[in-house]
Amino acid sequence: xxxxxxxxxxxxxxxxxxxxxxxxxxxxxxxxxxxxxxxxxxxxxxxxxxxxxxxxxxxxxxxxxxxxxxxxxxxxxxxxxxxxxxxxxxxxxxxxxxxxxxxxxxxxxxxxxxxxxxxxxxxxxxxxxxxxxxxxxxxxxxxxxxxxxxxxxxxxxxxxxxxxxxxxxxxxxxxxxxxxxxxxxxxxxxxxxxxxxxxxxxxxxxxxxxxxxxxxxxxxxxxxxxxxxxxxxxxxxxxxxxxxxxxxxxxxxxxxxxxxxxxxxxxxxxxxxxxxxxxxxxxxxxxxxxxxxxxxxxxxxxxxxxxxx
Length: 309
Fold this sequence. Notes:
Blueprint (H helix, E strand, L loop, with lengths): L9 H15 L2 H9 L1 H17 L2 H26 L7 H12 L7 H5 L9 H25 L2 H6 L5 H9 L49 H4 L5 E2 L9 E2 L22 H9 L1 H7 L16 H11 L4
Antiparallel strand pairs: 1-2
Helix pairs in contact: 1-13, 2-3, 3-9, 4-5, 4-7, 11-13
């Protein structure tokens, strides 16, 4: 999957997700992305994997390669275990399991059944086991071709969407005000940050008296004289200038000249009333210039934001 274009870099990955949201044009999906970013992204990765591996040839090649590797390991273990000419059947089984190691774990209950066969012919048993492994390979190959790829991915012990999220994104933290995701990358950073913040109304922030969602962004708020309150402050007012006292893990650049991207201006304008209803607030006072932004302009803004040609 890492060879797919949308997974090639963290930047292009983020761009692909936001572009997909823009094209789908669904308030429900935007809301999920904003309020539960990590969950949304992992679900998005899962859907991409299902689509990618639903291709017949791609799926078969991957599964067939894995099956062949497993069968080869079993066959090699049989050959090495039967090299001990002096051992009995129990010794053969023990050597066989030792050779497999953690590649294929056989339960002690299953091994117990062999103990009563201690005097059986080891060579004959090895021939029978080899034949059974060949039959098993054919049965598993047919089963793999019939089973739905979505079910296979869901049943994996290690969730591939979690692994890909960790490798491509690394950090799932969001700005405590506007819900922009951390762009630091990896997991070994001490401060979370986002290059361009979003209108804080998307993160449920509103003006106290009017209850209208705010269109301000975090970068301008942290150099203003206004205050905020939320669960982290026990709903007591706290100056934005001293936000780091409440959120020490975040670094928000203080810059009154910065604006939200046209992408997020478009999103907030289009779904203003729906965000307000969902957040139990009043719709924001949308600046007139925001209302003229088209979906095409939002897409171009997204390209500029992530330097995509």
